């Protein structure tokens, strides 16, 4: 009997398969993927994957591994509905699969610009392999024709693509509406350093900037006004964040609020349905976090939550909350973050590194060390994880 159905073959879904296979439960698992590929690593898509036409997707486990553990995979066949009463899901192909436990690992979808038509030929987002193949072709075309790339959004994905394109030799213009880069995720001090590095690398960065009056011609975005000045657009990458993919959960009547709401064991408001990874918003277990809910978008979080879900499904003990970790590669910058930046009222101690582009920022709140941001300082990052785990 296939009684554990996992919806979404991303980092969280793949890791859950690994955990359940290690427990000898592979034959009870079905992994349902909307994409035509087996689960693959997403982080390279904004980095090395774009640089070389021959770079392949890095699959997490190959078809032989899934077959060897008797895990049935359904590719290119998204789940379209959940029937909680009958405990079954319906796939786009019409197949109906029943479950004892259902795990939603549906990730996020890229936010798009509401004021642009949806399918413009020279406007793209970057979320999955299809987007990355298309973006790679576009970057190479720009390079051949000596045309610039425009990136809208100074978050991690926008900056990673901008830095990669610049390393490839492209002219890059980055437009950010807010007063600084990475405003949702790093300290102002780190954001300032990142800005200076990208500017020094030759990326034209526009902060506090507004875009208006898009000019659409023959299915292309031909131009717009940037801060009131007309500009032409050759290719635009929209990198303005993602929204949790909660449509299925909402249709099924689960509790959703900026993510599928789950308890510390990853159970949704229906205890037979779990949610993990980018799509889940969890109530925290630790004393410090009690009463708070958190939704993180990172590989580390997807893997950690898959382990918690696996422990629940096999009747094991609840694993301890692990220190949140994130990394980003932007050209020659490797940013690593351990812990969570307090929203306000924190003090920062700078640890200089081996050279001027290597350092760490140790942030202390009233409860002690809360977060360490390291730039080109992997040793500090390792120590930070240990220190934060002891708290
Ligand atoms: C370009 C890029 C670069 C990144 N770089 C980093 C990085 O450097 N460091 C880092 O920590 N994180 C990075 N991330 C974030 C990280 O990849 C995500 O946090 C992680 O993939 C989340 O895993 P997940 O399984 O929750 O979601 P995903 O990996 O997004 O997987 C969700 C899957 O569910 C599928 N799905 C959705 N709906 C359905 C349905 N109805 N039926 C079946 N399947 C469905 C989707 O197609 C998708 O394949 C990056 C993300 C991107 C896009």
Q: Give a short account of the largest sheet.
A: 5 strands, parallel
Bound molecules: flavin-adenine dinucleotide
Helix content: 10-25%
Strand portion, in percent?
25-35%
Stretches with pLDDT under 50, minimum 5 residues: none
Number of strands: 26
Structural class: alpha/beta
Cα-atom radius of gyration? 22 Å
Strand order of the largest sheet: 3-2-1-7-19
Provide the residue-averaged pLDDT.
95
Helical region count? Answer: 9
What spatial form do the alpha-carbon principal axes imply? Answer: globular
- End-to-end C-alpha gap: 43 Å
Question: Can you walk me through this structure?
Answer:
By secondary structure, the protein is α/β, with parallel strands linked by helices. 25% of the residues lie in helices and 29% in strands. It has 9 helices and 26 strands. A 5-stranded parallel β-sheet has the order 3-2-1-7-19, with helices on one face. Helix 1 runs parallel beside helix 8. The chain starts with a strand and ends with a helix. The structure holds flavin-adenine dinucleotide. Flavin-adenine dinucleotide binds at residues 7-13, 32-35, 42-43, 45-46, 78-79, 105-107, 126-127, 157, 245, 248, 277-279, 297-300, 302, 326-328.
